[in-house]
Amino acid sequence: MSGESIYDLLVIGGGINGVGVARDAVGRGLSVCLCEQDDLAGHTSSASSKLIHGGLRYLEQYDFGLVRHALQERQHLLHIAPHIVHPLRFVLPHHASLRPQWLIRLGLFLYDRLAGTGPLPGSKGIKLAGHPAGEALKPVYGRGFEYSDCAVQDARLAVLNAVDAGLRGAVIRTRTRCTGLRRHPTHWDVTLQAEEGGAAERVRAKALVNAAGPWVEQVDRLGGISGSGHRIRYVKGSHIVVPSLFPPDYAYVFQNPDRRVLFAIPFEREYTLLGTTEIELEQLPETVRITPQETDYICQSVSRYLRQPVYPEDAVWSFSGVRPLYDDGPKSASKVSRDYHLQLDRELAPILSIHGGKLTTYRRLAEESMALLSNVLPNLGKPWTDSACLPGGDLPGGDFEAFLAACLERYAQFPPSLVTRYAGHYGSRIDRLLEQCPGIEALGYHFGNQLFEREVNYLVENEFAETADDIVWRRTRCGLGMSIPEIAYLQQWLSARNPG
Q1: What is the DSSP string of 173-184?
Q2: Spatial contact of 235 and 278, defined as CB atoms under 8 Å apart
Q3: Distance between the two ends of the chain, CA-based, in angstroms?
Q4: Which of 4, 103, 281, 336 could form a disulfide with 325 if both were Cys (CB 3.0 to 4.6 A apart)?
Q5: Looking at the DSSP assignment, which residues form a beta bridge with residue 125?
Q6: What single-letter DSSP state applies at residue 479?
Q7: Of 397, 456, 396, nearest to 425 (Cα)?
């Protein structure tokens, strides 16, 4: 076992909550180490509906606090990450046999009021006949509603939080499993094991944050924490991606007879993202995959509304994740709160366990975690993450469209689609990829679907990427247009680049 490192805080889990806590903590002056057993955002945090939203349907559950907090966070994230968080206009066709118009109108009125003032336009009723958004819908849907929320690159949101934490001094250890926790009155002894059979390493931390997501209960047991009397409920959500079903100007929210809603969202220029399902699981499976029944459910649900029906064979990609929801009592999985619960055990050296939560509210969760830990980790700095941009987010005036226009003019020697993707992935860091490049040949080997050697090297050197899947499915979505042999060659190339 190698020598021992000492930290103020060890964060277990590299999903959105874990990286958010690590970033907040290191920015307040703590020494921080984060360990993640796989890749950053390798599980639930990269399997979302790719939205930053208040959760309109949570109003039906009277969860006004969650909606208000999420809408406030939507505003913060638009400010700190304008390159990966973009406004999106949603259309909700009215289905006469489901929710009445007055109820939807009331819900949208509350949604607008809870959001407060901001740059996003409010909701309104629309006549779908003659409206651009109505062209993709069956003629039977004559009226609907329009409102605002945001799309996000979910995995990149997590990765950029980790990148910023690392730039501020945090130690980020991907593919490193926590295999031992031993509690003392003043500290934790933690055993870390690298994936590739490296020597076990012991670190010491004054406090722990258990942000292991679906594995939060396992980590608690490893540390001898008995729990709070509640448990995690595992709810599986699946999505499919199909070739584009409509122009990218609008997204859709479809109501189902089971009172759930499904999203149809423009995705990666040429595709449409459809989902999600909600399947409660008795236990956490080793692998999570969409089932044929889920695919059928999604296709049938959206085909009730769209002129162009969707069939299972249309899917070009699918993904599934397990949401670790805090069990607050409801029988139905769809009614379990998406809010988070923070459990601080300070009997000896403190451990803060995070249960539940959602992508949109990760920053607030991290801030509240620091507030709880301030009692056991004195001399913390003040809250700061509501205004500090994530890497690449410092765009002039926070105006992505103006920034993109300037990039297209500045880098006119490259295909506009490539410059657009780089601007939307890397923001102000686009110069690190294209500066002093006379043309596309300077980007190096082309692996497929506009993925070039220069970008791959950047992701390995700056964003903790190690494998082909890290790059083509989480750091980028280039895998959607790449063949299996192309992705396999990328993995071979990466293995040769980093032997052993």
Answers
A1: ETTEEEEEEEE-
A2: yes
A3: 20
A4: 336
A5: 145
A6: G
A7: 456
Within 10 angstroms of residue 69's Cβ, the number of other Cβ atoms is 18
Amino acid at 18: G
262 — phi, psi (to 5°)? Answer: -120, 145
**Which helix (H) or strand (E) is 146 found in, with range?**
strand 143-152
Q: Which two tokens stand for residue 94?
A: 């009215």
- CA quadruple 58, 293, 322, 367: dihedral, nearest 10: -30
Exposure string over 205-220, b if 16+ CB within 10 A, otherwise e: bbbbbbbbbbbbbebb
Interatomic CA distance for residues 28 and 259, integer angstroms: 44
* 3-state SS, residue 230: coil
The residue among 138, 157, 118 whose CA lies nearest residue 23 is 157
Rg of the chain on CA atoms, in Å: 23
Q: How far from chain centre, in Å, is Cα 496?
A: 30
Tokens (6 digits) for 208:
């722990």
**CB of 253 within 8 A of CB of 306?**
no
Bridge partners of 190? 181, 203
Residue 459 backbone dihedrals phi, psi, to 5 degrees: -65, -35
- Select from 72, 13, 103, 120 the least CA-distant residue to 354: 13
Give kind and range of the element (H or E) at residue 470.
none
Structural contact between residues 423 and 455, judged by C-beta atoms closer than 8 angstroms: no
Q: The whole model's pTM is what?
A: 0.95
Structure tokens at 47: 């399997």
Q: How far is CA 425 from CA 156, 216, 433, 463, in A?
A: 8, 30, 11, 12
Residues paired with residue 134 on neighbouring β-strands, in sequence order = none
